[in-house]
Specification:
With 273 residues, this protein is mainly alpha-helical. It has three domains: 1-94 and 155-164, P-loop containing nucleotide triphosphate hydrolases (Rossmann fold), CATH 3.40.50; 97-152, no CATH class; 173-246, Helix Hairpins, CATH 1.10.287. It is 56% helix and 7% strand. Strand 1 (9-13), helix 2 and strand 2 (40-41) form a beta-alpha-beta unit. The longest helix is centred in the C-terminal third of the chain and has 28 residues, at 173-200.
């Protein structure tokens, strides 16, 4: 927010859950007050009843970038969904493959380990970069490779002709663990109320459990499958694991400059601009 304010930027969310309407507290969506007048894009652009693809994200993000640049502003792509960010900054060519519902239903019966093993046999490169704990991405990757009969296209590198500065925030595992705990304690009551509201508004428990960790375990708690303490313990543990996987993903990208504070980020931005 400080960088966007200083350098005349507008923010494009790169978060796979913040695109959905109604997923506010559980996804950690920024509030109007926190925006401090800075325009934000790609928040609340999709119904949670339907799956939102990375190809759709890429289309909308590129449109937002063009709009921001036409107003002589700087686009700030911000978020933790690595595949969304990669689709823009690395110019990933995404095959337009229609859903194969028969195949999806068969694959849905398999666990993550089985799906990952299948993908590894079909496309080792995609398997090396995918989140092996995300069944929807695993199924989609298998679907693409199966239908195109070839590996998912390699990155073409700056297909969209952008000069990009990538900045990551460096935190130790101890700092992350404390931050996750504090954030969870602060939000848990709100998340429970939000999940109940989403279910009343027509989202099935199955779909809610597909929408990420907070929604999965809170849905299980509301249904009486787990108790309150079990929900908290599982959330803390799984969010820590998720954060670790995120860092593993981003550390593969040698273009990222890791910073500890705003001052370091500001110097990098000034040099870049």
């Amino acid at each position: 927010m400080k960088l966007a304010k200083k350098f005349g930027g507008e923010i494009i969310s790169a978060d796979s859950r913040q695109v959905y309407k109604g997923l506010t507290i559980g996804s950690g969506k920024i509030t109007k007050k926190e925006m401090r007048g800075i325009a934000h894009h790609l928040l609340d652009v999709a119904s949670p009843k339907r799956k939102f693809s990375v190809a759709r994200y890429q289309t909308l993000a590129l449109r937002a970038i063009k709009k921001i640049q036409s107003g002589n502003k700087i686009p700030f792509l911000v978020g933790g969904t690595g595949f969304y960010i990669q689709s823009i900054v690395d110019g990933m060519l995404l095959p337009k493959v229609a859903p194969n519902w028969k195949l999806r239903n068969i694959l849905a019966q398999k666990n993550n380990e089985e799906l990952f093993g299948m993908l590894k046999k079909l496309d080792q490169k995609r398997a090396a970069s995918i989140d092996g704990h995300n069944p929807h991405r695993l199924i989609r990757a298998i679907e693409i490779v199966t239908q195109t009969k070839k590996p998912i296209p390699a990155l073409e590198g700056q297909t969209f002709q952008f000069s990009v500065l990538e900045i990551g925030i460096k935190k130790s595992p101890v700092e992350l663990k404390k931050a996750i705990h504090k954030r969870l304690q602060k939000r848990i009551k709100g998340i429970i109320a939000e999940v109940k509201k989403l279910h009343r508004n027509g989202l099935s428990w199955k779909r809610l459990e597909e929408l990420g960790l907070e929604y999965r375990f809170v849905s299980q708690y509301i249904q009486g499958k787990i108790d309150h303490q079990e929900m908290i313990d599982k959330l803390q543990k799984e969010i820590e694991h998720f954060a670790k996987r995120q860092m593993t993903w981003f550390k593969r990208d040698k273009k990222i400059h890791w910073v500890k504070n705003y001052r370091e980020a500001k110097i990098l931005a000034q040099q870049f601009l």
